[in-house]
Amino acid sequence: MKELLDDVSITRSLKRMAHEIVEKNKGCDNLVLVGIKTRGEFLAKRICDYIYDFENERVECDSLDITYWRDDMDDKPNTIPYFKTDVKNKVVVLVDDVLFSGRSVRAAMEGIMYYGRAAEIHLAVLIDRGHRELPIRADYVGKNIPTSLSENIAVKLHEIDDCDGVFIE
Predict the structure, then answer these.
(1) Residue range 106-121: average pLDDT?
(2) Whole-structure pTM over 0.85, yes or no?
(3) Which of 30, 75, 152, 157 is 20–30 Å from 58 (CA)?
(4) Residues in a beta bridge with 104
(5) Are 154 and 163 in contact (CB under 8 A)?
(6) DSSP for 65-129, written as a single string
(7) 21-42 pLDDT, tens per residue?
(8) 71 falls in which pLDDT band (50, 70, 90)?
């Protein structure tokens, strides 16, 4: 495994993305960050904390389990997951660790739309590795890392792993 980003690089990327989110949205009003479980929820929380550090405003932050809306799983849950955040007429920023085929993002958008009609949905990803199967692009990208289909990107976060880092296998 080769390390592509260390903990300092991840922090730098997330802080830059936090600034870009605030700048593009002209502040924090009407803004909600939703992390795609599992690693996206921790990245969303970090971005929310950085926005607070810069703007001294709390942005609403939540996470969404997208397995109910996945189109690539045979063994899906029968119940719609709980989601407490009101997204109606809000700018929702979906946050994920790696953007690959786009299918997870499609499922997340379907989940958000189930809970209400957002004013806009944006996408923030730590890594964009290419190879899209759907016409989806990220609005905020930590790092573009072109890969071959045979390579894997592994994102490690200290909240659930033993370290912070992005690795290619």
Answers:
(1) 97
(2) yes
(3) 157
(4) none
(5) no
(6) --GGG-SS-SS--SSPPP-----TTSEEEEEEEEESSSHHHHHHHHHHHHH---SEEEEEEEEE-
(7) 999 999 999 999 999 999 999 9
(8) confident
Which tokens go with 101? Answer: 């085929």
What is the C-alpha separation between 40 and 27, in angstroms, rounded?
Answer: 22
For residues 131 and 113, give the distance between their C-alpha atoms in angstroms, rounded to a whole number: 25
pLDDT for 165 equals 97
Residue pair 93/32 in contact by the 8 Å Cβ criterion: yes
Q: Give dist(CA 126, CA 129) in Å, integer.
A: 10
- The vertex-3 CA angle with 146 and 106, nearest 5°, equals 45
